Amino acid sequence: MSNPHPTYEALTAHYTRLHRYGHLQAMAWWDQACNMPPKGQEARAAALAEVAALIHRMRTDPQLPQQFERAAQEPLDDAQRANLREMQREWQSDNALPEALVQAKTLATSRCEHAWRTQRPANDWHGFLENFRPVLRIAREEAALLSAQNGLRPYDALMDRYEPGMTSETVERVFGDLRQWLPGLIARVVERQSRERPIEAQGPFPKAAQRALSLELMALLHFDFEAGRLDESAHPFSGGVPEDVRLTTRYREDDFVQSLMGTIHETGHARYEQNLPRELLGQPVALARSMAIHESQSLSFEMQLARSPGFVELIAPLLRKHFGAQPAFEPGNLHRLLTRVEPGFIRVDADEVTYPAHVILRFEIERALIEGDIEAEDIPALWDEKMQSLLGVDTRGNYRDGCMQDVHWPEALFGYFPCYTLGAMYAAQWFATLRRGTPDLDARIASGDLAPVFDWLRDNIWLQGSRWTTDELAQRASGEPLNPAHFKSHLESRYLG
Ligand SMILES: [Zn+2]
Hints:
Radius of gyration: 23 Å
Structural class: mainly alpha
Helix content: 55-70%
Order of helices and strands: HHHHHHHHHEEEHHHHHHHHHHH
Bound molecules: zinc ion
Largest sheet: 3 strands, mixed
Distance between the termini: 65 Å
């Protein structure tokens, strides 16, 4: 019998090869971050640049569009059509920008990011501005080009790279609603918690004990150690490939919560990757759906599961085992420690209640920047005003802990921030669905039976890869597209219930 879809098969072979090069690239990158001696640095950078160039050439192969057209005429099933759709989406975004703009962007962002590393601690906003203006100019140009090509608004065109299908109209509606009730909720929670006096955990918490705890937690969360590992790096990340996921964390001996929650968060990302559809691995349709959906997995683990009273009961004995018994590890006390809410300057240190305020502020500012409504000079005043109205925090003159705190803008990652809070909202939606189907969920979690959580996530999210659009995925998993009401009731029941 002759092959009914030879062009489609040729395309899948091309993407499988790309996946294999990407595999080696990810491992070399992981090794560079975790193991490499300093004298290997220069040669490794050159080797990685060579592989990146090879991968870029393959991804932008000028033959591909004709092959897409021919493959579309072949008798394909629904999954194959979805794969073809994702191939085309990938190709379009890789080819949207002229080479000169890509180079200018690399240059401007690496200069800005490099200087930012010293300008931030020095609180040097004016120095930063010099390097940031060209980054913003290029990002606007990029947005205009993408917008002309796909018909989206300029900011939406940038956001589409991380969250396909999401529009600023939707984000505006969802965040606009959040803006109405969040500051009031924060105030009520802070007032209520001011009457609590949880017992602080007493350190130091030796690194070796924290690592042993991390590994035990990952096993509890069904991380597949035959298909991944945990290491240490200066900046924690999750990398590798679905067949071999590489997580990293870092340990502070005076505070075990950072590595504990960091590891649980990254394990959520890792389990998504480890459970993407195996038979299609290497194909665009087998990739994780989007950044918000990825974040919905890490936050399902870190916020929905790990900060639930049942899970805290499960980990209390593990803390006693690794750090010795102390009053702070009593489950009720531990839960209060892990759910403390405190408005602060820094996004990455924020709790789940105040975190969305940091994201709303960044979304409002970056969208106005990209659409040309404001200039880079206007950022600090807007930042101060929004921090005051959203969190009651005074950032005037404090650029370091204000508008210079994140690496996203120096790196031109405009459109990324909304994914964090959309992810938190999807995570709340997944758990609301799970609770409907498994009314005794919390009792089962407390008894150590986490299978209902993992089975649901595996069937509804992980195994679906990029088969559906994000809206379709949410609809199929939970019976509705994104519905932020679940996030609101989650926060109200956990913090005010
Ligand atoms: Zn994450």
